[in-house]
């Protein structure tokens, strides 16, 4: 089963219902929820998400969201190899580098984000939710054609 890695901005789009991004992001999340893909996010995502969610919600609401996320998405372990790779990376933002190398560590096929420019696409596909859904539609049409 292929793994989808969810960047923090996608998770925020879903649970804060941020428009115009909510619908596509929620649809991709539902693919992990229904086990059509293995869903994953970095272990580092949880404290960052908590911090960002607490800006708009109370503590209990933020924790409830993180529990929902944890039910659906595996937490990519934060291991020394990830830290070392991020430290020596050309990726400008350190948190982005940590996420990227966490995704590689769990052999993600797709990295879903709205900030494609922040990540190199040479080792896995970096896609927006809309691009990922379009790719799935194209693959489905291709496999259904005679």
Describe this structure in words.
This protein has 146 residues and is an alpha/beta fold. The protein has a single domain, classed as 3-Layer(aba) Sandwich (Rossmann fold). The protein is 54% helix and 12% strand. It has helices at residues 8-15, 22-33, 45-53, 59-72, 80-87, 94-105, 129-144, and strands at 3-6, 38-42, 74-76, 110-112, 125-127. The protein has a 5-stranded parallel beta sheet with strand order 3-2-1-4-5, sandwiched between helices. Helix 2 packs across helix 7. The chain is globular, with a radius of gyration of 15 Å. The model has no long low-confidence stretch (mean pLDDT 94).
Rg (CA only): 15 Å
List SSEs in N-to-C order.
EHHEHHEHHEEH
Q: In CATH terms, what is the architecture? A: 3-Layer(aba) Sandwich
Roughly what percent helix? 40-55%
- What count of helical segments does DSSP give? 7
Q: Output the structural class.
A: alpha/beta
Tally of individual domains: 1
Spans of at least 5 consecutive residues with low confidence: none
User: What strand order characterises the main sheet?
Assistant: 3-2-1-4-5
Indicate the proportion of strand residues.
Answer: 5-15%
Which fold name is given in CATH as the topology? Rossmann fold
Q: Which CATH class?
A: Alpha Beta
Mean pLDDT: 94
Taking the alpha carbons of the first and last residues, their distance comes to 25 Å
The CATH homologous superfamily: 5'-nuclease
| Number of E strands | 5
């Amino acid at each position: 089963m292929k793994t989808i890695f969810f960047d923090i901005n996608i998770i925020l789009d879903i649970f804060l219902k941020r428009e115009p991004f909510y619908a596509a992001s929620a649809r991709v999340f539902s693919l992990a929820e229904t086990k059509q893909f293995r869903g994953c996010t970095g272990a580092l995502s949880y404290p960052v998400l908590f911090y960002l969610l607490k800006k708009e919600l109370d503590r209990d609401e933020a924790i409830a969201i993180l529990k929902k996320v944890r039910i659906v998405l595996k937490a990519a372990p934060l291991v020394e190899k990830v830290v070392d790779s991020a430290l020596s990376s050309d990726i400008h933002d350190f948190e982005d580098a940590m996420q990227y190398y966490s995704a590689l560590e769990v052999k993600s096929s797709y990295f879903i984000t709205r900030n494609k420019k922040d990540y190199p696409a040479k080792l896995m596909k970096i896609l927006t939710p809309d691009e990922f859904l379009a790719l799935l539609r194209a693959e489905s049409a291709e496999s259904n054609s005679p």
